[in-house]
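Just curious: can you write a single protein's sequence together with how it folds?
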Amino acid sequence: MASAETAAEHERILREIESTDTNCIGPTLRSVYDGQEHGLFMDKLEGRIRNHDREIEKMCNHHFQGFVDSITELLKVRGEAQKLKCQVTETNQKLQNDGKELLTSMDELRQCRLQQRNIATTIDKLTHCLPVLEMYSKLQEQMRAKRYYPALRTLEHLEESCLPQAGSYRFCTIMAENIPRLRTHIRDVSMSDLKDFLESIRKHSDKIGETAMKQAQVQIARDNAVTSQQRSASGRRIRKEMCLGTKVDRNGSNPFSEKDSGILDVEDEEENEIPGAQDLVDFSPVYRCLHIYTVLGARDTFENYYRKQRRKQARLVLQPHSNMHETLEGYRHYFNQIVGFFVVEDHILHTTQGLVNRAYVEELWELALSKTIAALRTHSSYCTDPDLILDLKNLIVLFADTLQGYGFPVNQLFDMLLEMRDQYGEILLKKWNQSFRQILDQDNYSPIPVASPEEYQRIACQFPFQDPELDKIPFPKKLPFSEFVPKVYSQLKEFIYACLKYSEDLHLSSTEIDDMIRKSTNLLLTRTLSHCLQYAIKKKNVGLAELVQIIINTTHLEQSCHYLEEFISNITNVPPDTINATKLYGTSTFKDARHAAEEEIYTNLNQKIDQFLQLADYDWTAAQGGAQASDYLSDLIAFLCSTFAVFTHLPGNAIEHATLPGKVAQTACMSACKHLSTSLLQLLLEADVRQVSMGALQQFNVDVKECERFARAGPVPGFQGDTLLLAFIDLRQLLDLFTQWDWSTYLADYGRPTCKYLRVNPHTALALLEKISRSMKDTSRKNNMFAQFRKNERDKQKLIDTVVKQLRNLIATNQA
């Protein structure tokens, strides 16, 4: 059973070996070797091989004759094939020999076709590359010519159109790589040109501003010329007088130039052909840089940079020099720079779209206005020259008018000029103070001698003086006033002219100008001239004759005040009777000065009297008085007589304060007599004088009588009766009381209106009586050393003691 299965398995394996690919026989043979019948299987395999060999041999034997026949045929075919090969070789040789020329021609044709194709390809490529090269060459030329904006446009066209069409050649790659660098170079170069432009206009803004201000000045002159043709002849005359000495500086500085930096060469222009700011400045660097940055997409960066740099330049321009106030050229340079700056900005505003806007320019102007006004206030405060202030005012007006022509608001500048008007007025007052003092110091205080009608007419042109009585007197003659009257009047007119000069071109109405001039003139009269007159009156060593002449001079100046009113009305075209018009205070000024001179006369007379009284040398213990007045008093009376003779020159009419001739002289005489009386009484009652003898009192009485004779003689006409004697009434009643020893009457009638000694004060009487008592006691002590005490002297001493006691009781009663 086992062997049958084994035989069947071997059979299966053999069939499998016969039918299976040799690559897969491994597992089959493994199954044989894994079994126990390996030998048996080998026997079966050998038997199967033998069977196949027999079958092969049978098949070969069966087909052998056919094989032999096929070999025989094949040998025959080989011979024919050899012949055919020889024929083919010969034919091929012939063909090769015959095709050599054709092959050569075909190679030549192929080469030509290849060259033709290469040429066509080259032409096509060159057709695309030549525009690139031409464009690049054009770009290089533009760069060399510094035409950066067209170069940037060329670069843009090259990058966007030409290079993509040319293809990816090495030179195209190099060009493409250079494009960013070229753009950066163009941007940097244009920015460098802009910086040069900004630096140039900063340096030359003075020239730009000077040109703009000259243009404005020429335009203003033309407008004034047209206006002047419409004014009256008097108005033209006044304006001509006001413009004397005013010169317009038309000398410009040398023209400047910078290559491609914004400043062009400008030849010298004629006076009526002043170049405009746009003619002086080449703005192409700004426009070029703006376009370049716009194309590069960096317009905002450019605008911010430009505005930032211009703000910095504005701060530099607005910073004045520390010594600007010293000369007008310093102010002119300062204004020229500011004008030049804003002329450039105004041009940029109107020729570019958005580089600067109105708000930016207005912001810069507000900054400039505030800093300019602050600088002018500071520096003008140092100025002490009115001519410089006036020139500065005219320069500020031109500065304001120039910028106003460009549309900038300048009202604050005119407001500042109105503030400077007060400073100008103060400086004028100081200058005129010196002028007035110089006139007063140099005056001889004597009437002006006039030898001919020409001299009289010359003085009449300076001072409005009319005196029909004086006109009747033949030449030579003397005017009543001294030289300082016409000189002071002329100075007053010059001051008014100076005030009018400042008010010109300030856009003020005639009424405002008139009011300003009148107020300034009032200050000159009430403060400056008044102080100068007070100085002349109060200065040392001024004589009575000079004071008298000052009174005469101020009288005539007072009369001329209404001429000054008319003069101001004529130059301002404002009637003097206008409502709310300011009136001149000249009348009160000259009245006050005249009154001060009168008071000074009184004071000087009193001082002279005091000087004479200092020479008094009374012997208060004298036993007997003299028969003649003291020498010092005689000299004093002589001095007073000669002095009051001078007062005959004083005017006695046409002045308010002197309704009667010689009132000043009368007042001076009365004042002198009163002062003399008071001083003599003080001399008698002086504390240093301890004793007064009756002899000394008699001498004192003689002196007082001399004074009364002087008063009674009437040294100054105009006193009624014995009015002048009343100055000595107190002294006379006191001396009569003691010389007549009328104490009973005094004590009995004291306090009654009809009292004989009504002017005697009990205190005065007591003081003098005590001095007499001390003198009598001292005399009695001296006499007692040699003789017995006299009874009558003792009785008189008792009487004096009784009167002293009664006087003290009287004083005590009055005080209670």
Remarks:
- Confidence is low (pLDDT under 50) at residues 232-272, 650-661, 785-789.
- The longest strand covers residues 449-450.
- Strands lie at 449-450, 477-478.
- Residues 650 and 662 are 7 Å apart (CA to CA).
